[in-house]
Amino acid sequence: MGKAVYIAEKPSVAQEFAKALKLNAKRKDGYLESEEAIVTWCVGHLVTMSYPEVYDPALKKWSLNTLPFLPQEFQYEVIPGVAKQFQIVSSLLNRQDVDTIYVCTDSGREGEYIYRLVEQEAHVTGKQRKRVWIDSQTEEEILRGIRQAKDLSEYDNLSASAYLRAKEDYLMGINFSRLLTLKYGNSISGYLKTKYAVVSVGRVMTCVLGMVVRREREIREFVKTPFYRVLATLEAEGKTFEGEWKAVKGSRYFESFDLYKENGFKQKEKAQELIAYLKEKEPVTGQIAAIEKKKEKKNPPLLYNLAELQNDCSKRFKISPDETLRIVQELYEKKLVTYPRTDARVLSTAVAKEISKNLNGLSKYGSVAVYLKEIAAMGTYKNLVKTRYVNDKQITDHYAIIPTGQGLSALSSVSQAARNVYDCVVKRFLSIFYPPAVYQKVAVTVKIREESFFSNFKVLAEEGYLKVAGIPQNAGEQSMDPQFFQVVQNLKKGAVLPVCALDVKEGETSPPKRYNSGSMILAMENAGQLIEDEELRAQIKGSGIGTSATRAEILKKLIHIKYLSLNKKTQIITPTLQGEMVYDVVNQSIRSLLNPELTASWEKGLTYVADGEITPDEYMQKLDHFIISRTEG
Q1: H/E element, 560
Q2: Angstrom distance (rounded) from CA 202 to CA 200
Q3: Of 306, 540, 581, 618, which is least surrounded by CB within 10 A?
Q4: CA dihedral 16, 19, 21, 23 (to 10 degrees)
Q5: First-to-last CA distance in the chain?
């Protein structure tokens, strides 16, 4: 019987595989070998696509006459800096005594591509190839992945979509960057007073640039409109609270042209006129016209996928998305959390059935011991499968990011930022075993003459999962001490309350918000639509631009090439002058590149290829047509 080769994406992962397999292996140059197996590794990509001048030296010079550049056969080459490791891997894969290759690169589209390129350039034939697909790097998960490894051919569609993604980025980048640089580069460099200006264009990158520039221009062109609200200060049992006037049916201002929306006036005089009218009869009193009491339940949020985690870390810790990805990848490699590059926010049934393992492991994580005791007492983990946090249909490659319950000793060797991120993941995970938070809400309507004033009160009645997650500060509702809430609870319809004051409060309309690094990732995940509401986001999961694995990198590139600038303290993103000029150039020439729906449809097409719903040739025809029509048009 021949030997098996295990090939991982990087040395640290290879080390974990060797450990899990309990190999008595000798360390060689670029691999480990024992009697029965060999473990080797790539160092990320070993092979890349060749530049146009490799096809024809004349293509080194940029010229409109040589566009569009659409090779019949694509050429690839070994990356010079890692040529030595490629030679080592190539000779191992082709060794006579090797009969099985276990592909252990990252379990995703990019990991698949890294291995397939190596196999292609090493011209491997006649070996049995198996794919190890895992969700975490714990020992039992690695061994399960090896035990259940499927034939590599079952991943051929995924591989085809990976090749197409690379070809698409390559062709759009080369053709459109050359085209726009040749046409507009001199004008841009002349204006910016730089030596030269290359116009960098990319399928996702340009679309993201467009989103930021459009938002910035909306803000720039926004004209603030002042408006004037009328507030009443009412008294009950010695306590005061505010009521806001609204021009509802029955008001003398109902549907009046003097209004700015229903709760304000365009002019201050009109607000003062209303106050004068209400004060005609002294002393001013208000009568309670309606009281509505209800309980509101707030369910624990769904688990983290990468985009949600990046958004939270940007908001809470001011960490950029690429830094969050780097941290969570490190936590994954240290066995602390499950696979990070995931779009899913739920668990699989199989994992849910074994969830007590994750919970038991966390008992060594000091700060959550009290929550684990409560979860054990409630027994909620037993019925997890029946909850909304488990849904096999919503999982494509990997389930949500959760703590494995293992590797806790490694926490002492990671940064404070990494410990914060881990804590976030743990608390979000533990939240799902708790009941909803329950708020007691009271809405009071007070009438002063025939005008209505509205007050909303909210108090947290049952902490539920907020015990773990922390209590958010709510705007817009008057939160209060329990004593005062009791006063509000005791109010009766028909009761007459003294009005202590009537005031005009000036407000102004606010411009749209700038994107920050986290909200940008969420907007990319939803094809350019930023949906602030967490529940709503989960429901209308659209098709994204970029993937969870690439979004942070794209943002980083735009900042690196100085099309966007990132404020490190606030994580706010704004376009640079150069970025705006590139946007204008694309807007005048290849406008469709700025369309998030179209960019998302390319991504969807790649998913269709991975799922075997369309062939790679069909996709390639569309791509060629898109490039020809835009470069020759």
Answers
A1: helix 551-560
A2: 7
A3: 540
A4: 130
A5: 60
